[in-house]
Write a structure and sequence with these properties.
Layout: H1 2-26, E1 31-35, E2 39-41, E3 46-52, E4 57-60, E5 67-82, E6 85-98, E7 102-106, E8 110-113, E9 116-119, E10 123-128, H2 140-147, E11 148-154, E12 165-173, E13 178-186, E14 193-197, E15 206-210, E16 213-227, E17 231-235, E18 239-251, E19 257-267, E20 271-275, E21 292-300, E22 304-305, E23 311-321, E24 337-339, E25 343-351, E26 354-367, E27 371-375, E28 379-384, E29 389-394, E30 398-402, H3 452-480, H4 482-503, H5 508-527, H6 536-545, H7 550-565, H8 573-593
Parallel strand pairs: 2-10, 22-30
Antiparallel strand pairs: 1-3, 3-6, 4-8, 5-6, 7-10, 8-9, 11-12, 12-16, 13-18, 14-16, 15-16, 17-20, 18-19, 21-23, 23-26, 24-26, 25-26, 27-30, 28-29
Length: 594
Amino acid sequence: MKRMAIHKFLLLLFLFGSAVGLSQEEDPVEFETNLSKDKLGLNERLRVDFTMNRDGDNFTPPDFEGFRVLMGPSQAISSSWVNGVKSYSKTYSYTLAPTQRGEFTINQATIVIEGKTYKTTPKKVEVTAAVDKPSDQMTADDIADQNLHLVAEVSKTNPYMNEAVSVVYKLYVSPTINVSNFRPLDNPTYNNFWSQDIPVTSYSVKNGTYEGKSYRYVILKRVVLYPQKSGALEIEPLSLDITLDVPTNRRDFFGQPIYTQTNKTVSAGKRTIDVKPLPLAGQPSDFSGAVGSFRFEVKTSKRTLKATESLQAIVEVEGNGNLKLFQLPTLEMPGSLEVYEPEFNENVRTTLSGMQGKVSNNYTVVPSFKGNYPIPPISFSYFDPDDETYKTLTSEEINIEVTSGPLESSGGNIPLASGNKRPVQSTGSQFHFIKLSPDLTPKMETPFFGSLNYYLFFLSPLLLIPLAIVFGRKREAIASDVAGRKIKRANKLARKYLFKAKRAMGNKDEFYIAMEKALHNYLKAKLKIETSEFSKEKITDLLTKKNVDEDTIGGFMALLKNCEMARYSPFSQVQMQQDYDKASEVISSLDKQL
């Protein structure tokens, strides 16, 4: 049995080795040329790497016409096993200096792998005049300047007043550098604009081009602006402090570039837009500032009803434009209809193309008399920036029929209501139900002197004296306990700010400010120390003396550290929820131990 088990094991081992060998044989041979750049100045350096995925013999480099070899060839070999699959890489590297300007070709290199000769593909290189600062002499800041750009993309630079303008802030990053962190330094205030932020829920990296070169970019901020005056208006810049890793001219053992970390302040720069005034020619008299493309309608919830019943009359504007920045036309009603102040309703969402949705005034109307009441048409005017013309929309006349109720004595002449008031009309029957014989009966009164209420009135001050003494002593005790009042106040503030942090979940700055205040006030209440005395060492020392366990102390200090780091680092919603849950857990643990 043992011999059979050994045979099975050797058979499996053989099959596994054969499968690995076959998978390795199936991988095609790769032999290619990689250049550090395809365009360089006469005073710069070029790095050429010849890389293969199999070991070979008789490597022959090209002649490097137009260049002088400063260093090379140097070899770098990388080999690894991942999930039973072997990966192999071997690189021959050269550092070259151009000898003249012009366009040159890095010709084919050859190598023999498993008895076959393989060749690389030729690569073109352009050598220009000498540059001010060669790339191989650039500092980390110089490299960051060339490979990092914060751009404010403005949808329109010459809009009309009250026409939507979107601004999208993008951070472009070259593939040669890596951004590890960023924080805003200065946010624009958008003076002379009505502004609406469109929140960026996540920073997703996308591929794009900037000035003809390939970059990665991320959208940091989106905002929609409506200019409120004409002329040249400035959009203030957004500024960021960015921590990034940039490559150096040094390489590690495997030939990979060594990176160094630096901080860089970038700004989107000021943008100026030239806002055109709305034309005066052809402007309707009822124009109230609406700019965009709209639909207009007046409608009622019913056309037939009885007197004293109510209906809803709705004046509605729907479409795309500055929906929150103009007045709706006023509905005119016949004077015999009682009209209440309208209720304003708004269903508007903001996208990069501007505000979309509808706004309306909802009037409650109550008729008092039987008859027919026409609601006359009203008009709504707006300016269409696409057609550059004013347009006027007019509603249809609506007839309201009141089928039952008292008749109006005015003989059918129904004046329009002014200021939502209606004249008082007499129906001739207002006093039919006033009772002229009241049938009153005398009421028997009990004398006050000698009654129960009489004795309670005189004895109640005597009963209140002991209560006043007890209450006064308690107030004196509370007033003399200054330390106790401070502790209670700090404890109350801790609960208040912890609740405020929970409500601010998602707003990083507001959340961590409230969280830090909650932690500080909790310590003031429990350790009886002032905020001015706070230091990490003192807090740790005091909690240790109170026999608080190390895990709880470490958790509390980690929360304080996160509150400080939040000023400089982006924190996700998940991280905020974790910190809030941790704060509740740590405070509960401290309560038990203190």
